[in-house]
Amino acid sequence: MPYDVPPPPLDNPVYLNHRRWMLRALALAEVAGEAGEVPVGAVLVGPNDDVIAEAVNRRERDHDPTAHAEILVLRQAGQSLQNWHLNDCRLYVTLEPCPMCAGAIVNARLGLLVYGADDPKTGAVRSVINVPDGPASNHRLAVQGGILASSCQQQLKNWFRQRRR
């Protein structure tokens, strides 16, 4: 398993901060869903608890299979910081990253990944495969999963239900 960070108590300031940023990621995901994209939002926060980059899924709009929220936010952060090493940063994303995104996160040497909902189909941190602890991983990734998981899951379920109508 990736280096799991024990969940803080619900009244703990660390949890409240994780919740704050995940709420921002959920708001971004809503924007993606309204634009016809799978509703996934990502926020990258720096060591001073400031937003360095944020993004939403843009695969449909950009006609780009790599335009996942996580990839876009990592690209923005690298440009903003003029450094691809993101070891002092935290990434908040509403859905467990896929294999492509998990690989990029590991390669960015991210300090902490915080995600909402597990992805039982393509999750590559815990659910289906474990990229961070795979033999090709060159970084020990700290992970905190399940922050606002039910809200993240419900947002996805509602979006897919609406798309099927």
UniProtKB/TrEMBL annotation:
Residues 16-128 form the CMP/dCMP-type deaminase domain. Keywords: Hydrolase, Metal-binding, tRNA processing, Zinc. It catalyses: adenosine(34) in tRNA + H2O + H(+) = inosine(34) in tRNA + NH4(+). Zn(2+) binds at H68, C98, C101. The keyword Metal-binding applies. It comes from the Bacteria. It is an enzyme of class 3 (hydrolase). Its cofactor is Zn(2+). Gene3D superfamilies: Cytidine Deaminase, domain 2. The active site is at E70 (proton donor). Binds 1 zinc ion per subunit. One of its GO terms (biological process) is tRNA wobble adenosine to inosine editing. Its EC number is 3.5.4.33. Catalyzes the deamination of adenosine to inosine at the wobble position 34 of tRNA(Arg2). HAMAP family: tRNA_aden_deaminase. Homodimer. Belongs to the cytidine and deoxycytidylate deaminase family. ADAT2 subfamily. This is tRNA-specific adenosine deaminase. It comes from Adonisia turfae CCMR0081.
